[in-house]
Amino acid sequence: MSESRASHEVTRHEPAGAVGPSELPERFENPGLPPHRPRLTDEDPAAARRATLQVAALFGLSVLGTIGLIVAYVLVRPGDTVASVRTSTMVLGGALFLVLFGIGAAAIHWAKTLMSDRDVVEERHPQKSPPEVREGAVAVLEEGAEDSGIARRGVLKGAMISALALFPLSLAVPLVGEVGGDWNVGAFRHTMWRKGVRLTKDPSGEPIKASDVTVGSAFHVIPEGLRDSERWIEEKAKAVVLMVRLDPKDLKSEQGEGWSYEGIVAYSKICTHVGCPVALYEQQTHHLLCPCHQSTFDVADGARVVFGPASRPLPQLPITVDDEGYLVAQSDFHEPIGPSFWERLK
Fold this sequence. Notes:
CATH architecture of the largest domain: 3-layer Sandwich
Order of helices and strands: HHHHHHHEEHEEEEEEEE
CATH topology of the largest domain: Rieske Iron-sulfur Protein
Shape: elongated
Radius of gyration: 33 Å
Mean pLDDT: 85
Low-confidence stretches: 1-7
Strand order of the largest sheet: 1-2-3-4
CATH superfamily of the largest domain: Rieske [2Fe-2S] iron-sulphur domain
Helix content: 25-40%
């Protein structure tokens, strides 16, 4: 036994010149900061002027982006086609990119080429600042402004102020532009669904017979005649429905008596949290999942919220069948669809 134990013993060999734990100093000396390496703009006035013009040009790019966004908002309006909506979105998004990129790139280039790049060390001190430190706060801010060179470089000052002053317009104009005749929260209380309107498949528009809907299946549904609407894209955004068929014995509750047909239930696809499409159906649990923030609704129990940030169930569309066996709506939704904003009443 002793020979076996001895054969497994490990001998530790310290490298030559190594310092043992007992020989380490109690406190290491501060190595200090490496010597400052001046940049080209620190030594060459011409390079500093070039950097100043480059920063001003980037701020100017932001200004042009803001102007372009406003022009695009007025001239490149989304129409009644998907292509027009895509074009408008791409143009506005590109212009907004120029607005933000210009400001961000200008700030970074300014800091790297013109502002002081010397290392600064601040010794640790108690958290509570003494009165003289608070009194010196204004002096520190003034020193920082002086260090940035903004007082000496009028071109940068004007370019920065112009870009920052115009930037809010890129957000405000689209928002304010929508405050008009169409800014009507009450419009969300009503959709294209009416009594007798057939449920059709999205996007083909083919009417759906109850006999074609098997237990466990799910259909993405739009109202019949949607494409005939003048503003069909907006109407579709409100009227889209997810329809599933359950075994009638699994149906625990509905939002209204007789709103389903032989286990077939239809609910708005618009999440009541922030309006994302609720389109992920889990057949075994009868749960609908919103992919944006994981709000989960129980289709078998009146689309009750079982998980996530949504504050109310998905509105149910009352359905039945017509004389030909096609699924039709009994009426519109009985409550507003979409996010539960504070000003919206059920």
